[in-house]
Amino acid sequence: MYHVSIILVAVWFLSTFTNCNCAELDESMYCGLKNCYDVLELKRSNDDTSKSIKKAYRKLTLKYHPDRLDHTDDSEEVRRRNERFQEIANAAEILSDDEKRAAYDYYLDHPEERLYNKYAFYKMQYAAKTDIRAVIIGLIFVLASIQHILQIEQYNRSKKSDFALQKEINERYQKLLNETKEKDQKRKAKLKRQLETDIVNEFERSGKLFPPTYRSLFLFQIVLFPRWILNVMKQRKLDEIEKLRLEAEATEKENKLALLRLQKQQRKEKIIQDKLKAKEVEAERKARSVAREEIIQKEKEKSKLMIELRRKEARTQLLGLTSPECVEKVDFLFSNPSICSVDQLDTILEKVLELCKKSEGNGPFPADKIVKLEHKRLSLQYEAKMMLKFGSSGTGRAVSRPWTSDEISVLTKAAKKFPGGIRNRWIQVANYVNAQGLTSHSRSPDECAEQALCAKNSPVLRTGLSEKIRSDDSKVTLDDPDWTMVQQQQLEKGLQAFKISDYPNVKERWGLIASLVPHKSAKDCAKRYKEIR
């Protein structure tokens, strides 16, 4: 049809640009300038049938057929008879076909319609003689047959080349022969064919072998192509719906995340604002507290200054009324406000002044007696206050069990045996100390660690312990049950704090040291120091 369209366009072009308007016959169509009826020696009538045309054609072919020429005829006669025979065959072909004959009759009746006549002629000339649909269907069947044959051939080759299949066939065949002990070759071949069929069916059912199917043929694919198109369109529509759903879910998720981020940001901003507000409130509170403390401190300083002035005036006045022997006692009264307050000093001064007025002329220093009595009374009160301040083991204060010298010696050996870096060091040290059985009670790892640290930081204990370890005959003892580890530590602090160079007065120095040791006097502290020195 494509060639026919090209030819028709060419004919239209020629007929448009040619100036030939004559009604003569076209030499390039049908029988040329001759009439096809005249060529077959027939007269044109509506009664002419294909039977009469074929009869005239046979009659003329018997007369002008090239095979009926003699060999003696010349070449000119042969060429003329051949041309005549071709004209007869062409005319018979045109008139025997009803469609061509109708077109030719219209051509004879309307020779001036050159374009239409050319279109009709070339359409019949180049049109396909066979229906194109039949050709396509036949071609499809041929291709499907070839494809099926190739699939069968490939399937047979795959069966032969499948190693697992052939191995399974050989193993079962040998097992079957061993069981049946068949010797007939025909029966063996039959058994092998049956066995191969069964094993191939098993492989096909298990999906290890794929036989050819009609659904895989090109023909069935063409038949199922519309269905495949519909499935593809349906799947594409479902994919679009799924895509829209996923996009909607993603959008919703993003919106939720954005909302959560916004809420989180708002919470952070609120927290920051609350913190800033709290800081401002705290700053204001601190400022007020600092101002109040400054006012209180100023009042305290002012009060303290007034008290100091009063104490100095009272001390000066009291020293003027007492003898030089009582200077130390007066200094004791004025040494610490906790010993004697301002009110007590005023009371003492009033008593002294009253006594001086009553005893005018009885002695040079009548106030010495009152000062001595007040000194004794206040010193005893101060000592009792210190005892109450430090407490005792009977008041519920935690007191560690005393360590004997033998325990300290064993502790030192255990510390050397289990040096630092060992896992669970103080547990092993405590187990070692308790395994010696020196006391009825056991020592905990914390007690061992605390006593070792105390011995390490205490030069006196370290020196005494070294002497105990170096000499078994030494009379130095550390196992005084009256001295606890806390008391020993306080004694060490007092010895380091109140040195002889700073406090040349021995009594005063040991009194100050004893003030740090709970439940111990200056004599006890001095005695303990002599034992461990």
How do the helices and strands follow one another from N- to C-terminus? HHHHHHHHHHHHHHHHHHHHH
Tally of individual helices: 21
| Structural class assignment | mainly alpha
**Anisotropy-based shape:** elongated
Return residue spans where pLDDT drops below 50 for at least 5 consecutive residues: 13-23, 390-400, 459-479
Explain what this protein looks like in three dimensions:
Helix content is 72%, strand content 0%. It is mainly α. α1 runs antiparallel to α6 (114-126), α11 packs parallel to α13 (342-358) and α15 crosses α16. The longest helix has 97 residues, at 225-321.
Key terms:
mainly alpha, single chain, 21 helices, about 70% helix, about 525 residues, elongated
Give a topology summary:
Layout: H1 2-17, H2 36-39, H3 50-64, H4 75-96, H5 98-109, H6 114-126, H7 132-161, H8 163-180, H9 185-206, H10 218-223, H11 225-321, H12 327-333, H13 342-358, H14 368-390, H15 405-417, H16 425-435, H17 445-457, H18 459-470, H19 485-497, H20 506-516, H21 522-532
Helix pairs in contact: 1-6, 3-4, 5-6, 8-9, 11-13, 12-14, 15-16, 16-17, 17-18, 19-20, 20-21
